[in-house]
Amino acid sequence: MSTIPTTFNELLPSYTVVGGNERRASTGLSAVVLNRGRYSRYGFFEELEKAGFDYVLSMESAASRYDLEDLSNSFPFIRFVLLKEGVSAGEEINLAASELSSPLFFVLRSDTRILRGGGAERMAERLHVKVLDSKGETSNGNYKRLCTVPLIQNGRSETMPTIITPALVPEKNFSFKGPKNILKTIPYIAKKEGLPSLYPFDGIGIYDRDRFIRLGGFDPFIKNFYWQLMDFGFRSSLWGEEIASTQLIKLSYDGDLPKEDSTADADSLRFYLKNQAPAFHGDYAHIPFRRFPGYFKRRGELLASWEEFKEARSWVMANRYRFTSDARTIAERFTVDASGEGEENHGDAHDDAHGNVQGNVHGNAGGKEQL
Hints:
10 helices
């Protein structure tokens, strides 16, 4: 296992910047564009210009630079961040957060459109914490939460189930000792304001920059974006942060919906060690040694398993007082919060040939962790 970073900007990728020195507004909200596919970006950037974001950052991989010269001439306010090597979506978001100074940043995809929101200034105003004083209701300068996720619809104008809930699901094949609960994620459609979500679907959402940096951002050593999101979301909840939905902002995908790859692999093992293995006692967390046999059985290679386990124990120890609960408690809490939404809003699930729930319900790291 690669060493778990202890500071946010410890492992940022190399990059250069073209254009975008002009500040367009002072709303407190900037836009970050993660590019996907070869869609025409002129109309999309025109929308962002009209919305009035303070700054706009476009994260440019080698594949997305074919129209860069024309775009930089047409949109001088956009800061094009040219990555020198291929990186994960989470690393792009980390880099954007380090490059910006705005207190809020809205992560968007280049194949989305903003259908509802009211402009950058209105979006930012809604996220201010309001307090009552002699002058009435005013902002105290703080923002509501780590990340606010919008409604998203597909190309057929259907609202998608993008609120993600972790759940404890009984395992089908259990021993005589009784059923085991394994960790799954279930998406559903938010029907009211402020419902919690484990992570921002596809990374899309408005992030509080200070909270994001204090949390450590996305793990750069996890390359699969699904497991990056799972790690980010669980760490957020375990450390007492909030990710929740709003119905006041709505986006639409222009192209095909993104597919999440929940394959159990090295990334899922890293997720397990950082998020499912810690036990919480009183006011701190630690990874008990009794977790090691199960991890070794899942991982294989005794020496490598022990080094990874030991590294994760050290990381949890260094952050032990930042934990406010454990994975089981988080899953149970989400189940209570989502109970009023109704079964009709939940995403479908089906079993594959190996008995793992796939599609809109994803298994945990290896699919056998008892909670």
